[in-house]
Design brief:
Length: 308
Amino acid sequence: MSSFLPDILALFFLFSLIIRRLGVNLAFQPATYQLLTYVLLLTIGLKGGQALTSEFTFSLISNSLIVIALGVVLTLVAMLIIHTFSAMNQSDRVTLAAHYGSVSVGTFAVALSYLQLKGVSYEAALNLYVALLELPSILVGLWWLNRNQSSTSLKTIFGHQSLMLLLIGLVIGGLYGDIAEPMVKQLQPLFAVMLALYLIHMGAVAGSKFGEFGSNQLFLICFAIFMPLLAAAIGLGTALLLGLSIGGTTLLMTLAASASYIAVPAVFEQAQPNANVAQALVASLAVTFSFNVIWGIPLYHHIAGVVA
């Protein structure tokens, strides 16, 4: 019977979303949500840094540059689609494109747990790629909107909690290697529980936002489903270029297909207060996150198993 059910992680999200639409809100208070994200981000960072210490090669540098280029390409592709098929103003177009050129650490965490449940291994470098893929779309988007001025500071771009927590984990895990293993082992059981709670919260938030699409409703829904599929295909091509395993390919496809709903909204709300960040957030969270968690990740894993 279990073979006919969605992935167990998807059910936490799906039931919370349905319950929210029925009028019961399971979302946590901001402080609780922040604690959940801290545990997830630090655990991912520590594990990644720890593994990278033993797996570092000079090819990692060139591969990282390719991954950064992937982030730029995804942003430009999203920008072209939005410009061609929507009537949004330039600020809103670039803001939406930046969300889809960046990545969702939450979606990545779900994909990690999905692979672990199935016993599928992956390259440690994927943990580094998460941090690298946070930046290109922000840089490209803000440069595009401010190319005739110099008001955007590096602090605005780099000073976001999610990115900093990932980098802290990567650096500490990398510096201490096996010494950090006891801490990682203690965090690992918490990771699964925190991820389930995180998905319950995100399901409630997504369920509350389905009615907030505004006048661009049809385009946003279509874009928020089509763009992840196109981006996953681009991510697949990049994974094949890098020679990643099935697990690594699944994760890179998932990252490419995901859309930011933490880092990019926070940066653009500060740097571009006139941009419609709420519109982009509804698309990335209510539609794309839902699609990836329920259907996307199993699909990307299946494709990776066939191609990689």
